[in-house]
Amino acid sequence: MKDIYILAIESSCDETSVAILKNGNELLTNIIATQIASHKRFGGVVPEIASRHHTEQISYCIEAALDSAEVAVEELSAVAVTEGPGLVGALLVGMTAAKAFAWAHGLPLIAVNHMAGHLMAANLPDSDGSIEYPCLALLVSGGHTELVYVASEGDYKKIGETRDDAVGEAYDKVGRVMGLTYPSGKLIDEMAHQGNDIYNFPRAMIKEPGYEFSFSGLKSAFINLVHNAKQKGEPLDKVDLATSFQAAVLDILMAKTKAALKEYPEIKTLVVAGGVAANQGLRERLAQEITDIKVIVPPLRLCGDNAGMIAAAAYTEYKKNNFVELTENAFPSLAFDVMDEY
Fold first, then answer.
1. CA distance readout (Å), 223 to 45, 173, 177, 200, 220
2. Is residue 135 included in any domain, yes or no?
3. Nearest-angstrom CA–CA distance, 80 and 305
């Protein structure tokens, strides 16, 4: 039987990444060109700068992936690419490169939802195990916070999401107020393990039915506390601030996730994925509080944006012959809500 090689491209935000996946279970290479150094001085991602960096790096990343995997172009079975959600300009760079490569080499094109990619990273061999269905996914990143019910492979249904800020966005904004370097999620997580939850920040929507999240109130409460203390000349302990903030975040995430697991007792696997899944505090809470079903959290290197996860999601679509025309494009609408369309 002929081996299936999928070359995948990810460019939704500030990571230019190209991966090659063999037969859906062997990640041969996962090249990632990060832009953190360029965006750090601005305290966040600047879309125009991100697009320019993608344009500069995409060809080099494709060449590096093929060289690293020792795979010839003639061996490839398909090209996959993130079509959204994400920064529109950044998405267009990846989509254009993928279409050009597919056309030049006569390969079919697979368009992948970025969040489906995060979810399916759990199926890559370096993760804790393969997904058993039905599955519940908690997807937490800089741009998204959502719960997704997965009845079977490729059958995604979003059951809840944030009404305002994503959890990763809240971490970065709080970090900026604390004077921490961007991205600040890892620093806050480290500090949170050293202090005490003394500021008692609000746990928004925990008692409300459903699976919607909200982090803007928590963020505002944090900012107001810091600003008021500064005006009064009162000292605040940054370590305790980090501990109190993270305690509120984790209480919210865990409460909603456990409520969903209770409503859907048929769930066999909980997947927690996305950039915030790298948070050690979240991993510890999952290990302590959810012990009766399989829990898969991808390894740290697969939590952030990477093309390996896009290849994993694309393999599901490849098996269904779910290809798109080379006229496919990255659309601004994909930056908002497309998971329900899968």
1. 21, 9, 7, 14, 5
2. yes
3. 15
Domain residue limits at 214: 130-297
**Measured distance CA(84)–CA(335) in Å, rounded:** 6
Domain count for the chain? 2
The tokens for 183 are 């991205």
Full-prediction pTM beyond 0.85?
yes
Statement to judge: residues 219 and 155 lie in one domain: yes
pLDDT digits (tens, 9 = 90+) for 296-335: 999 999 999 999 999 999 999 999 999 999 877 665 434 3
